[in-house]
């Protein structure tokens, strides 16, 4: 069974750094792109970027380029989303999703990030 | 900045039919945008329904169908059930990057 398991909820202060994770299992982790999606409270889905764990090829939405870093460690089948300096506006639910045959087929359960002083 | 626009909300009666659309600020949506559709219920992660315009997943109910309509991607729900009440999002491909639509809240009343 394909599963994406994300790290737990985080509460951080503005200016702090953060790295959240998404661990894949039940499939060949290096063979499928993994994307990250933001959902701010009460708002819609926003596509942030995507990584191919096989060679770490990464693409970003222009809206998120330079704001976050997407990476992957294929030795432990885990993708990451990180911030170097959080802002209150980064408060959101973040989802990872596996791309398969033109679809974002499998989704993680989401990681809630709260940034508040 | 590319914007993908959907109807903010639609209301449909049980057993009725409703069509949601997905428009791109760059022009007509074609199969080359590989339109995807997702359903999201409160407190849940999105669930994939349709990919590459009209292809269904094994779990996608037969009453859901995807198409291209008048320069937009479209999702039609026929014989709507109460459990179809949810937020629906389209997703379009722009050569290496993707953009989600603004979302449509479907109410079954």
Count of helical regions of chain B: 0
Give Rg of chain B in angstroms.
Answer: 13 Å
The oligomeric status of these chains comes to: heterodimer
Q: What percentage of the residues of chain B does DSSP assign to strands (E)?
A: over 45%
* Order of helix and strand elements from N to C terminus of chain A: EEEEEEEEEEE
Helix content of chain B: under 10%
Secondary-structure element order of chain B, N to C? EEEEEEEEEEE
Give start-end ranges of low-pLDDT stretches of chain B.
none
Major sheet attributes of chain B: 7 strands, mixed
The main pleated sheet of chain A reads as: 7 strands, mixed
Poorly predicted runs of chain A are none
Shape of chain A: globular
Global Rg of chain A: 13 Å
Overall mean confidence score, pLDDT of chain B: 97
The helix tally of chain A amounts to 0
Mean of residue pLDDT values of chain A:
97
Shape of chain B: globular
List keywords for this structure.
heterodimer, A: 117 residues, mainly beta, seven-stranded mixed β-sheet, four-stranded antiparallel β-sheet, 0% helix, B: 109 residues, 11 strands, globular
Descriptive report:
The complex is a heterodimer of chains A (117) and B (109). Chain A is mostly beta strands and 117 residues long. Helix content of chain A is 0%, strand content 54%. Chain A has strands at residues 3-6, 10-12, 18-25, 34-39, 45-52, 57-60, 69-73, 78-83, 92-100, 103-107, 111-115. In chain A, the strands form two sheets. In chain A, strands 2, 4, 5, 6, 9, 10 and 11 form a seven-stranded mixed beta sheet that branches. Chain A has a four-stranded antiparallel beta sheet with strand order 1-3-8-7, with no helix packed on it. Chain A is globular. The model of chain A has no long low-confidence stretch (mean pLDDT 97). Chain B has 109 residues and is mainly beta. Chain B is built from no helices and eleven strands. Chain B has strands at residues 4-6, 9-12, 17-24, 36-40, 47-51, 55-56, 64-69, 72-78, 86-93, 98-100, 104-108. In chain B, the strands form two sheets. In chain B, strands 2, 4, 5, 6, 9, 10 and 11 form a seven-stranded mixed beta sheet that branches. A four-stranded antiparallel beta sheet of chain B has the order 1-3-8-7, with no helix packed on it. In chain B, a hairpin with a 2-residue loop joins β7 and β8 (72-78). Chain B is globular, with a radius of gyration of 13 Å. The N and C termini of chain B lie far apart (36 Å). The model of chain B has no long low-confidence stretch (mean pLDDT 97). The A-B interface holds A 35, 37, 44-47, 49-50, 59-63, 95, 97, 101-105, 107-110 and B 1, 34, 36, 38, 40, 45-48, 51-52, 55, 57, 87, 89, 91, 96-103.
